[in-house]
Amino acid sequence: MSAKNEIIKSITNMVGKYSAYEIFSDWVECSALAMQNSCYLIHNELWQNREKKYASVISKYEEKERIELARMFKLLVDALAENIEDVLGDVFMKSGCNSKHLGQFFTPFNLSKLTASLNIPKDISEDNIYYINEPSSGGGGMIIAAASVLKDRGINFQRCMEVVAQDLDWKGVYMSYLQFSLLGIKATVVQGDTLCNPYIEGNYPPERVLITPMKMGVLM
Known about the structure:
Shape: globular
Strand order of the largest sheet: 1-2-3-4
Oligomer: single chain
Radius of gyration: 17 Å
Order of helices and strands: HHHHHHEHHEHEEH
Strand content: 5-15%
Structural class: alpha/beta
């Protein structure tokens, strides 16, 4: 069984006290908060507030469930190592989290990759920075598709891509941040309304901004 399918199986097996949607949302939030805080040497107020948020969410689960959530993070690492794709978007759709009532659906990755292949210029090289602004990031599928296209062309996306991704939904922010971080993409991921308040460095409170380890220059 692939690592991605193991994550789906784990979520469906845990359903009972909490829905698949809630388990998935809590898992990506805790994973993202833990990863971001691991990048900071100075434990300031922002770091402490994120630790408190993590503790508040994870406290809902029993010890064996916490162990399983940690194992799912390891499986996410493995899944992204197996294949550059929108793993979390696929997990969301296949584990019973999607709902027409919630209006949350993620674009199939093959369509995202087709779109990226048609729009990414052919003359990109590792010697120049390719800036991408994603105004509605969702789970980060379009950015991941861009990375996959560049890799297919023999270009190291970790060297040439610089991303700002924004979304209103915190779940999408956490999903994007996790996948970008594990893929080594230089990215700033922001929770906010792109139309009313597009991100410019310094114009958002730091608690609504997550920066990937590659962008921060941190070795994981």
